[in-house]
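Quick one: structure tokens for this chain, please?
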Amino acid sequence: MPVPTSDAAAPRTSLREQVFARLRAAIVDGTLEPGERLHDAELCRWLGVSRTPVREAIARLELAGLVVVKPGSSTVVSPLDQRAARDAAEVAAAMHELATRSAAPHLTEQHLQAMTAANGRFERALARADVDAAVTADDAFHRIPVEVAVNQALGDTLEQVTPLLRRMERTRFASLTGRASVAQHTRIVELVAAGDADAAGREARANWLTLTWEN
């Protein structure tokens, strides 16, 4: 589909990050489709910014594997790459295992209730085939252990690989295959509540590796 024509400007605070985040979100949610050619002028009009932050964002998106840049020729949204997604899933699985194991002793009843509530939203979103809501709820569930773990390197790594996975998960969550995650989420909460941090970490790892098994 063509680049949106909205004239809405990106917020001026942390402009580089705002432009990067908006372009990344547009790629992840499919607004900018795989194989679509990106033109600086169109992106600048859409975002209401100059060329510099757009080019900086494109460079970061290339590093993240979300666009392919041919210098002096074109920039296109990367196709969905099963191998790249599997590689990213393996890294994300290891990071979420570490996050869950590290956070487990510090997760309070309030944290577990928030994770359970997020899983409930996730299940309901899957039931009505609301992919956007499913992704948002899944993010909310997994974000809690990551934040409680307080490991900057872990968070930075997930920031790099998660967008690739979210593109794949949109396909997965649109089908019945994503529903196994509901039970896995429930099991993670149960294991944390039982004080078994290692088993909870292994379950978190298995949850993320379902992407490699089902795609």
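The radius of gyration is 18 Å.
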